[in-house]
Specification:
Elements: H1 8-16, E1 22-26, E2 32-35, H2 37-43, H3 47-50, H4 64-71, E3 81-87, E4 92-104, E5 107-116, H5 118-140, E6 144-149, E7 154-157, H6 159-163, H7 176-180, H8 188-199, E8 206-213, E9 219-231, E10 234-244, H9 246-260, H10 270-286, E11 292-299, H11 302-309, H12 311-327, E12 334-339, E13 342-347, H13 353-365, E14 371-373, E15 376-378, E16 382-389, H14 396-412, E17 418-420, H15 423-444, E18 448-457, E19 463-474, E20 478-480, H16 482-492, H17 495-515, E21 522-526, H18 529-534, H19 537-548, E22 555-560, H20 561-566, H21 568-579, E23 584-590, H22 597-603, E24 607-610, H23 612-616, H24 622-637, E25 641-645, H25 650-658, E26 663-665, E27 673-674, H26 675-684, H27 687-693
Parallel strand pairs: 16-17, 19-21, 21-22, 22-23, 23-24, 24-25, 25-26
Antiparallel strand pairs: 1-2, 1-5, 3-4, 4-5, 6-7, 6-10, 8-9, 9-10, 11-13, 11-16, 12-13, 14-15, 18-19, 18-26, 18-27, 19-20
Helix pairs in contact: 11-12, 15-16, 17-19
The protein binds ligand C2E and calcium ion (2 copies).
Residues 467, 526, 558, 588 line the site of one calcium ion.
Length: 694
């Protein structure tokens, strides 16, 4: 301020009206000598309130010493220093200062330029706070934090990032290698791809799940999220979080395990097996050089083991079987538990039947050593059906069905073996299905008829009763014998409704004869093993008897010896139940089923029927003759009647009489005849047979 010139007034105005806050203070005590309008506005003070005061007195007490020092430092000429916090009676503000030494009114003075930076400072302060908050969050977060400087290629890893992998703070380094070298080899490619996609701005953010090796050696599942920061289209930095998702993954895997894997054996389940089968069928359709085979494995007589040892041990046994089978299965092949005691194998890429047979034999050999069940050694075998897919299968169901058919054939041939599905089986299977459908239709169309074969009392030649034998009056084929359709009815389960009809019809017919004043004796009705298993025998017999208004004594149930021995306990129960109804029970085809005497005792049978095969050569084969004699003796010791079946000659008859056989049945007396024919015999009496006997 060069006062005293003609321009002094102009200069004064330049000072007064300068938009920048300016003040003049003495160089020693910093007492304000002059302050312009802008300064007064900034300080919210009047000229009187400011002039004469030390500038320092307005500075925040904490900063005063530093402020004084800066004011006294001449080298700071024309430089910003601060910011300082200024407090005046009316307001507070942050400001940076600039100072310049001048001479004013004859004294050493300073011009001070004060610039209000309150806004910037508060902004920075807020920023500082959020940074602190961020730091605190990083420290306390469950997630690891990473910040990758892509320019210097260094990574900041938060302490938690390391902790998730078992490392202590600072033990991880700052290189991307510290991260990527720990990623599971199977996942690294995927991770790199995801990062690359984001850095090329293909994906808006990085989100990827992969496994990392924990310091302890195992792997943990990580979820990494991140966002890159781009400058001029180039990624310069990427930061994000790292979450341990091992628990969630384990849950997902368990859920997946439940859907596609068998809980008991840990093997693939039916669903996964069918899924894989469908996939390979499509592959075989597309590529004529490609083929594969499936093996259907069914354990032999597992049900029996399961019932005698209990289900818990049965389950353990199945798990053992699964383990043994998996040992002989190649790595590229699939082994699954299809349900119950059924297992399935897919031999991937196999077109040579020889290779299938070899594999099947290996699987059978896996059963050669006994299994240990509840401390016992249990011998288990399996039957295997093989089907080769040469591209002609379009559906997995068909392929599985054919393997099942072949397996069934293996069972029929004596179990513990394998069979390959072939054209012959195909035709038989088709024929089977046709008969099955036809049988169903026949049931509704009432095409069945009962024939009756008389059973003769050998003591007086009278008719003791008859055996009801079913026939099928087929509209095209004529009279079909039971040997042709009973096995199919049994396998398909149709024997249950058919057997119901037979029982009701036999009782109805017996009632009818009685109503005619005839004496039909006892009617014998055959029951199949499947009916025994249905658990409805008592209900059935009771229903048929009551509907016909028939006494239980009029009916005898015949069950073959082998059917009885298949499930002796079940048979005993059924016999007890029907015994209460007064119904007797006869063991059919005796001598062919290897009965155990211990069981026989508890059967309380009313009749033993000696199988036709023994009667046939009773006069020529001494061994059979002795056996027949023994059976007759046996039935008498059980107070049961003995019936000789299939008596065709007078010699057979006289020999049976010699051995004191009670009853006989055979072509010698009569073939099975329709109800009307038997009724005729009942009316006309039995003179002819009497002649035979006496
Ligand atoms: P099965 O119960 O042993 O019946 C006796 C079979 O021997 C009958 O054959 C009968 O016709 C035949 N037969 C009787 N006397 C002689 C003879 O002197 N010489 C010869 N060679 N055969 C004789 P069918 O009627 O063909 O029945 C065959 C089998 O079919 C029966 O054997 C039985 O197991 C089954 N079956 C027949 N009817 C029924 C039924 O209603 N229900 C069930 N579940 N099975 C039945
Ligand atoms: Ca019979
Ligand atoms: Ca028989």
């Amino acid at each position: 301020m060069h006062a005293g010139t003609e321009h002094s007034e102009d200069y004064r105005r330049l000072f007064e009206e300068n938009p920048q806050p300016l003040l003049v203070c003495d160089a020693a005590a910093h007492v304000v000598m002059e302050a312009n309008e802008a300064t007064l506005r900034m300080f919210g003070a009047t000229r009187e309130g400011l002039v004469g005061q030390s500038v320092t007195s307005f500075v925040d007490a904490d900063d005063r010493a530093a402020f004084e020092e800066k004011m006294g430092t001449s080298t700071l000429e024309d430089q910003d220093w601060g910011p300082w916090r200024f407090n005046t009676p009316d307001r507070s503000f942050d400001a940076v200062c600039q100072r310049r030494s001048v001479e004013f009114a004859g004294r050493q003075a300073l011009i001070v330029h004060i610039q209000d930076v309150t806004l910037r400072v508060s902004h920075e302060r807020a920023l500082g706070q959020s940074e602190q908050r961020y730091a605190a969050a990083v420290k306390g977060a469950n997630d690891g934090i990473w910040d990758w400087d892509l320019v210097s290629d260094t990574v900041y890893y938060s302490a938690r990032f390391g902790e998730l992998l078992g490392y202590e703070e600072g033990n991880l380094g700052d290189s991307p290698k510290d991260w990527f070298s720990k990623v599971h080899p199977d996942d690294i490619e995927h991770l790199r791809l995801e990062i690359d996609l984001h850095l090329r701005q293909v994906t808006p953010r990085l989100k990827v799940e992969y496994r990392m090796q924990h310091r302890s050696g195992g792997y943990v599942w990580m979820l990494t999220r991140g966002v890159a920061h781009f400058e001029d289209g180039h990624a310069v930095r990427m930061a994000g979080s790292q979450t341990d998702i091992s628990d969630r993954k384990a849950g997902e895997e368990r859920a997946l395990q439940g859907t596609f894997y068998d809980r008991l054996t840990g093997l693939a389940n039916r669903l996964l097996f069918l899924d894989r089968l469908g996939f390979l069928i499509r592959r075989a359709e597309k590529n004529s050089d490609y083929g594969f085979a499936i093996l259907f494995i069914d354990l032999d007589r597992f049900k029996l083991l399961n019932e005698s040892y209990g289900h818990a041990l049965g389950d353990a046994l199945l798990a053992d079987v699964g383990k043994r089978l998996s040992r002989v299965i190649g790595t590229g092949d699939t082994l699954a538990r299809l349900g119950g005691d059924e297992f399935g194998v897919i031999l991937d890429g196999v077109t040579d039947p020889g290779a299938c047979l070899y594999q099947a034999q290996m699987l059978l050999d896996a059963f050669s050593e006994p299994f240990i069940v509840g401390g016992d050694a249990a011998h288990l075998t399996a039957s295997i059906g093989i089907a080769l897919n040469d591209g002609r299968y379009g559906r997995s169901d068909d392929l599985l069905r054919d393997a099942d058919t072949a397996m069934y054939r293996a069972k029929k041939k004596g179990r513990a073996r394998y069979e390959v599905f072939d054209e012959q089986m195909h035709h038989e299977a088709v024929a089977f299905m046709r008969v099955e459908a036809d049988l169903k239709r026949a049931l509704y169309a009432s095409e069945f008829e009962l024939f009756y074969q008389p059973i003769i009392d050998l003591s007086d030649g009278s008719i003791a009763g008859s055996e009801a034998l079913v026939r099928w009056n087929h509209p095209e084929r004529g009279l079909v014998m039971p040997g042709e359709f009973i096995p199919i009815a049994e396998e398909s389960g149709l024997i249950v409704p058919l057997g119901e009809w037979i029982m009701f019809e036999a009782c109805r017919q017996c009632r009818h004869w009685l109503d005619q004043g005839l004496e039909p004796g006892t009617v014998s009705v055959n029951l199949s093993a499947h009916q025994l298993k249905s658990g409805r025998v008592q209900e059935l017999v009771e229903g048929a008897l009551s509907q016909a208004g028939l006494d239980g004594k009029r009916v005898q149930i015949e069950l073959t010896e082998s059917a009885v021995m298949e499930d002796p306990e079940g048979a005993i129960q059924v016999f007890r139940d029907i015994e209460r109804l007064g119904v007797r029970f006869g063991v059919d085809d005796f001598g062919t089923g290897y009965s155990s005497l211990a069981y026989l005792k508890s059967f309380r049978f009313g009749a033993l029927k000696i199988d036709r095969s023994f009667i046939q050569d009773i006069t020529t084969d001494a061994e059979n003759a002795a056996l027949v004699a023994a059976v007759i003796g046996l039935s008498h010791s059980f107070r049961a009647k003995c019936v000789g079946e299939g008596v065709e000659t007078a010699e057979q008859l006289s020999y049976l009489r010699l051995l004191r056989c009670d009853l006989a049945q055979g072509y010698l007396f009569s073939r099975p005849v329709p109800a009307a024919g038997f009724e005729e015999t009942l009316r006309s009496g039995v003179q002819g047979w009497h002649q035979l006997l006496f």
